[in-house]
Amino acid sequence: MKRCLVLVVLLTLAGCTNAPADKSGPTTVQIPTPKADDTAAVKALKEVYLGQELYLQRNRRYALTFDELVESHILQQDPSKSAGGYEISLHPAADAESYTLAATPVSPSASARYFFTDKTGVIRAEQGKEATSSSSPIS
């Protein structure tokens, strides 16, 4: 009798009971996506612009990748990894005499802001769609 009681206690503690299995399937957990941080995106665009200007002075051309700016010790890290809910992308011209930068929300929505800049340093924005060189400048 003691053995049976010990066995029942051990099975209960181990979770091996004869209770019916949950047949509802796997549970999906929604991890909230952080809200895009416009300030962080604009800051990242400004840092890359300033970095590109310094790179141009040193190398007589713009950097083709963020890695070039990091390896030159102009930027501390790839800005696309630290832009608070935005993906920052660099689009250099084939001749490296110009470039464009875009900040796109990781979780797009109708109210999300998109940003754009180029070698002029003027940051432009659109709400709900990609910003371009003809978008309104931000102040």
CATH topology description: Fructose-1,6-Bisphosphatase, Chain A, domain 1
- The chain-level structural class is alpha+beta
| Mass-distribution shape | globular
Major sheet attributes: 5 strands, antiparallel
> Which strand order do you get reading across the main beta sheet?
1-2-3-4-5
Helix content: 25-40%
The first-level CATH class is given as Alpha Beta
The total number of structural domains is 1
Backbone CA Rg: 26 Å
H/E element order: HHHEEEEE
Beta strand %: 15-25%
Terminus-to-terminus distance: 82 Å
Poorly predicted ranges? 4-11, 28-33
Number of helices: 3
Folded structure, characterized:
The chain is an alpha+beta fold and 139 residues long. 29% of the residues lie in helices and 19% in strands. It has one domain: 2-Layer Sandwich (Fructose-1,6-Bisphosphatase, Chain A, domain 1), CATH 3.30.540. Strands 1-2-3-4-5 form a five-stranded antiparallel sheet, covered by helices on one side.
Quick overview of this protein structure:
The chain is α+β, with helices and mostly antiparallel strands and 139 residues long. It has three helices and five strands.
